Inverse folding.
């Protein structure tokens, strides 16, 4: 029996609730974190070249708050939405320890909780592949953007068959020494059929998703990610794309 979208969404949340602590350890080891600050600073400059005041940013599927904290460090006003309680707890501590403020809320990337409207940017990092209907999610995010606002998405080819074989062969362990690989494969064995982008998202697919959601003239920003943004052997491709809602 196939799972409903609601059941898939809930089981995805449960997995990442379990994964939160070990995920935090892996995120902390992200190579050259300062480079991500440069990337998002340059991306927002290109999207809003004449803007001087802080942007209103909505970070969906925020996880442990990596991107939310980056935008806060860049001086922007940030609302972050995350369904997994353990992830939110880590994010709250990370943000407080860094001395910044983010409006952190419980909720899914799709459908969104009531976050209001008038955002300049809706952003997500490594989230679209986890969604049961990424096109519908992107359409929903348009509803909270102000006229002239933009969506900024980052993702990658995480679950190719090559990557799955690696997890199966090694039973990959996180930097917290938690056995993650086999648990991931077991958790997603039934879920993948309900996740159209489970195998991952490259630049071409990101542009197609944005176009299908009604965004005009997607912008490729891959060239901003020309350094060691992810650990070796964890991704076959990555993408950074943006598009305006007007």
């Amino acid at each position: 029996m196939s799972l409903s979208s609601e059941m898939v969404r809930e089981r995805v949340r449960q997995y990442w609730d379990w994964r939160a602590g070990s995920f935090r350890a892996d995120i902390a080891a992200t190579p050259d974190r300062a480079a991500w600050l440069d990337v998002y600073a340059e991306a927002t400059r290109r999207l809003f070249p004449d803007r001087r005041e802080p942007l209103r940013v909505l970070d969906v599927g925020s996880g442990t708050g990596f991107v939310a904290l980056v935008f806060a460090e860049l001086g922007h006003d940030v609302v972050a939405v995350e369904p997994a309680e353990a992830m939110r707890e880590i994010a709250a501590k990370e943000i407080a320890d860094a001395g910044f403020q983010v409006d952190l809320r419980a909720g899914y990337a799709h459908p969104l909780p009531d976050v209001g409207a008038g955002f300049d940017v809706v952003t997500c990092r490594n989230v679209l592949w986890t969604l049961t209907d990424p096109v519908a999610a992107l359409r929903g995010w348009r509803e909270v953007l102000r006229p002239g606002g933009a969506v900024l998405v980052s993702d990658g080819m995480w679950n190719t068959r090559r990557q799955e074989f690696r997890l199966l062969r090694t039973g990959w362990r996180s930097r917290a020494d938690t056995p993650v690989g086999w648990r991931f494969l077991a958790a997603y064995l039934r879920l993948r059929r309900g996740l159209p982008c489970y195998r991952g998202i490259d630049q071409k697919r990101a542009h197609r998703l944005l176009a299908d959601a009604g965004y005009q003239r997607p912008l490729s920003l891959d060239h901003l990610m020309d350094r060691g943004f992810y650990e070796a052997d964890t991704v076959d491709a990555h993408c950074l794309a943006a598009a305006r809602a007007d």
